[in-house]
Structure to design on (421 residues):
């Protein structure tokens, strides 16, 4: 069997697959695993109750049920939900959206596959057009999303230290080059894995640089603004025609509904809808139907701000406090917890690699994600030359607080052993 260059990439497991397999095994296994690995959102009782009632209401209406399970939506996505989203966003932001500015996708993961390959890849003259990730570490799920190899390139960040144990990544604008090979720029805000939220000023500057050379800036707000709103620092949602804003219902509490929302210029939405028709025929109706009334009543925004954000923020604070306690006296740095659901721990001078630490922790019943997966766009030589890539781990605090605490204690114990060996 002979595979294409793209197919051959999957003859071994990709990072995101290892992560999702770990998640599945932890959920399916008998043994008690402390799951501080995958990106599964928390189970927030008020949110779960709302969706339970909504599903019951749909199930008891033959017409609504038929729409849920018995009809194809158009490839752009459910029109009623798109209309409700547009009206909700126009009530709160001066974005002047029209339904033609919104495409739904089966999860935002699939939106990225479409967008990256729509802009990046070989152009008509055979030249390679790349997607630039302006701050790395960046989301593991981008890494293998290019049909063409070397689709991504990335810029190392500058690092700001706050005292001994806290740091923050910034875009290093001085070294950021948007040359003619760059087809688009993409940044997750908040960033998975670091929880970094690039500042409003950085976003503005980045958008201006992209506009200057007429390429889109893709802002991945899967955790961010306007919803689900897992942002714990001052930051604004922003969209204009130079930006492709990608949202998702997953971290709102509906990861299984596979609903991504792309807000973009009309021609980009049209192209996405056409690709979506080829790839998926239609989009999934489930998320649109479950969230329709939330959009109509602005509750995608109010629930995000009043329920989802405080829920995660409280968990973030507890987790940080425990982590600082269990690592007292060790040479660690924690990325400033500005958003998302992760602690990004940088163990400077770690005597083993983050992959080896991950394996030791797994033996102790704790799953985390080794940091080296989160540097897509850097080539092997760049990664080799930057020990930071092998000194970080990502720890999710989305699950039960007590389990997170137990996991952090084991992490503290194992890390201490390493430094004291
Ligand atoms: N973007 C980021 C930064 C993520 O962390 C994830 C998933 O965890 C996604 C996009 C994809 O999410 P989904 O396909 O569930 O919308």
């Amino acid at each position: 069997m002979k595979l294409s260059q793209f197919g051959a990439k999957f003859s071994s497991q990709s990072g995101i697959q290892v992560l999702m397999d770990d998640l599945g095994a932890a959920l399916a296994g008998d043994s008690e695993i402390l799951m501080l690995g995958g990106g599964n959102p928390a189970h927030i009782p008020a949110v779960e109750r709302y969706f339970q009632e909504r599903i019951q209401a749909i199930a008891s209406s033959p017409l609504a049920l038929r729409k849920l399970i018995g009809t194809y939506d158009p490839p752009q996505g459910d029109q009623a939900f798109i209309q409700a989203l547009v009206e909700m966003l126009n009530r709160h932001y001066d974005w002047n959206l029209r339904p033609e500015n919104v495409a739904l996708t089966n999860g935002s993961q699939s939106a990225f596959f479409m967008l990256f390959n729509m802009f990046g890849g070989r152009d008509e003259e055979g030249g390679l057009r790349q997607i630039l990730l302006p701050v790395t570490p960046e989301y593991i799920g981008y890494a293998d999303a290019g049909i063409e190899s070397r689709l991504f390139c990335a810029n190392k960040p500058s690092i700001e230290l706050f005292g001994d144990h806290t740091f923050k990544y910034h875009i290093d604008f001085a070294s950021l080059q948007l040359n003619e090979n760059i087809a688009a720029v993409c940044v997750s805000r908040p960033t998975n894995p670091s929880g970094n939220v690039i500042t409003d000023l950085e976003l503005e500057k980045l958008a201006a640089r992209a506009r200057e050379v007429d390429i889109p800036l893709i802002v991945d707000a899967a955790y961010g603004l306007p919803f689900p709103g897992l942002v714990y620092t001052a930051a604004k949602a922003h969209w204009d025609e130079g930006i492709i804003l990608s949202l998702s219902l997953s971290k709102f509490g509906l990861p299984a509904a596979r609903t991504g929302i792309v807000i973009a210029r009309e021609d980009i939405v049209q192209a996405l809808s056409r690709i979506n028709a080829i790839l998926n025929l239609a989009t999934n109706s489930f998320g649109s139907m479950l969230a329709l009334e939330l959009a109509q009543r602005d509750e995608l925004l109010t629930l995000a701000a009043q329920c989802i954000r405080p829920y995660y923020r409280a968990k973030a604070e507890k987790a940080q406090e425990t982590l600082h306690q269990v690592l007292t006296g060790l040479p660690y740095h924690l990325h400033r917890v500005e958003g998302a659901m992760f602690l990004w721990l940088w163990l400077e001078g770690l005597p083993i690699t983050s992959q080896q630490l991950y394996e030791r922790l797994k033996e102790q019943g704790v799953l985390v994600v080794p940091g080296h997966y989160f540097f897509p766009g850097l080539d092997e030589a760049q990664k080799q030359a930057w020990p930071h890539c092998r000194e970080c781990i990502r720890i999710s605090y989305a699950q039960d607080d007590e389990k997170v605490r137990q996991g952090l204690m084991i992490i503290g114990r194992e890390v201490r052993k390493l430094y004291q060996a």
